[in-house]
């Protein structure tokens, strides 16, 4: 246990004991959901229980989304992952009965609320593109990054150059982040680009898409709890030693992140799920190519591990400093707004950045257009800019500030947030 059960400052969001699992994993997070969601072994949407068993194999987004979430409340996922009303019209066919327990999550999707209005306006903004599939622009960029990464890794092994090593590791991080655009979508081969980092695209569909995206900066956010007690982002936790020294050891955490996730990944593959999937072989493409080029196993292993370390450092430096952590951004423990609209929580827990959002390359490789991405995670990053007028209009209607931060403000703010313990009223 990492400490006592933590209460949320969002009224109605229940305590989540699974956040204190000794070894945090995606599977553990899902099991935690099953314990509090009242889905009774089915799929829950709002207060209804549905049996989607016969729909799993024909689900347009792929079976994995449904097999993982069985026995949980999928309301937030259902609303944010279906832009049109087709799924809403289909759902009643699978209705079984109403749930007995009230929802563990107080967030709402009222038809006149922020999110539903934004959703309708965004759908109109996207009417001239096939938003159910990624853009050619993003595909070409992601493919180019993946191929370049493989080539750079081989060059590093052959030349043993430090410069090549740094460039290869940086490119690995960019490729991994670009793949994040794809694992949010229906099953596709580009989502496996994520796995060359040694992290699991399956695990991140849980910890990132299902946890962090749906409940950012709350006690239900895996990306908050998994760093505890080393990095403390919630102001309601004292942790004076960590708060005063995290700036010193953060770079080490950034560097070892891919390694620690690889260990957990293969421990789960072999000892928990006991199922080896195609994606679990993907991380070994890089060392296989390096060994084929050099024929030297020690050199291959050494430079593969170093590339993974550099990639991990760049990945975490971008991710942890990119959008969510700043004293002026809501974190659980702060005073929450009274309106429980899910879209408003998303807006309060993220800030967009100048410069990054002006370039598609930076958007795809550094989590750009992050507010819109959180609100509509399945939409390709190249199409999100089409929804900017809809977001601005809806924010104006609801009195939401859309001021952007600079990347430097967020970097400084992340370290300031690690030290903050006083609650604030952080609503845009």
TrEMBL record:
GO molecular function terms attached to this record: heme binding; metal ion binding
Keyword Lyase attached: no
Amino-acid biosynthesis in keyword set: no
UniProt-listed Pfam families: Cyt-b5, FA_desaturase
Protein name per the record: Cytochrome b5-related protein
Lineage: Eukaryota, Metazoa, Ecdysozoa, Arthropoda, Hexapoda
Stated role: May play a role in muscle cell metabolism.
Sequence ranges assigned to domain Cytochrome b5 heme-binding in this UniProt record: 37-100
Residue ranges of the TM segments: 140-158, 164-183, 303-323
Family: Belongs to the cytochrome b5 family.
Record's keyword terms, sorted: Heme, Iron, Membrane, Metal-binding, Transmembrane, Transmembrane helix
């Amino acid at each position: 246990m990492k400490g006592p059960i933590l209460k949320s400052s969002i009224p109605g969001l229940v305590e989540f004991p699974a956040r204190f699992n000794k070894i945090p994993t995606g599977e553990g997070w899902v099991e935690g959901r099953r314990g509090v969601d009242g889905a009774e072994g089915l799929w829950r949407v709002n207060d209804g229980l549905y049996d989607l068993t016969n729909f799993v194999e024909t689900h347009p987004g792929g079976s994995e989304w449904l097999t993982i979430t069985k026995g949980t409340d999928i309301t937030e996922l259902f609303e944010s992952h279906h832009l049109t009303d087709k799924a809403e019209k289909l759902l009643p066919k699978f209705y079984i009965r109403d749930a007995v327990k009230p929802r563990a999550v107080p967030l709402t999707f009222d038809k006149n609320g922020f999110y539903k209005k934004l959703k309708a306006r965004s759908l109109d903004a996207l009417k001239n593109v096939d938003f159910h599939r990624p853009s050619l622009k993003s595909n070409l960029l992601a493919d180019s990054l993946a191929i370049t990464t493989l080539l750079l890794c081989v060059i590093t092994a052959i030349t043993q150059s430090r410069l090549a090593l740094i460039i290869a590791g940086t490119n690995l991080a960019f490729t991994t982040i670009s793949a994040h655009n794809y694992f949010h979508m229906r099953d596709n081969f580009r989502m496996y680009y994520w796995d060359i980092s040694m992290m699991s695209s399956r695990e991140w569909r849980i910890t990132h898409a299902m946890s962090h995206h749906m409940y950012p900066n709350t006690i239900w956010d895996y990306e908050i709890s998994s760093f505890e007690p080393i990095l403390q982002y919630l102001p309601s936790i004292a942790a004076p030693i960590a708060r005063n020294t995290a700036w010193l050891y953060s770079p080490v955490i950034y560097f070892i992140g891919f390694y620690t996730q690889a260990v957990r990944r293969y421990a789960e593959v072999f000892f928990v799920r006991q199922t080896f999937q195609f994606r679990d072989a993907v991380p070994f493409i890089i060392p296989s190519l390096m060994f084929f080029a050099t024929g030297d196993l020690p050199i291959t292993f050494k430079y593969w591990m170093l590339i993974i370390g550099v990639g991990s450092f760049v990945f975490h430096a971008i991710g942890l400093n990119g959008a969510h952590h700043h004293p002026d951004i809501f974190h659980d423990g702060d005073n929450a707004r009274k309106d429980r609209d899910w879209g408003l929580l998303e807006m309060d827990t993220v800030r967009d950045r100048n410069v990054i959002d002006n370039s598609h390359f930076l958007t795809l490789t550094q989590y750009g257009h992050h507010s819109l991405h959180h609100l509509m995670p399945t939409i390709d990053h190249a199409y999100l800019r089409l929804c900017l007028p809809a977001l601005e209009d809806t924010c104006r209607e609801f009195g939401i500030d859309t001021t952007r931060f600079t990347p430097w403000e967020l970097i400084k703010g992340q370290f300031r947030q690690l030290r903050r313990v006083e609650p604030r009223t952080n609503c845009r």
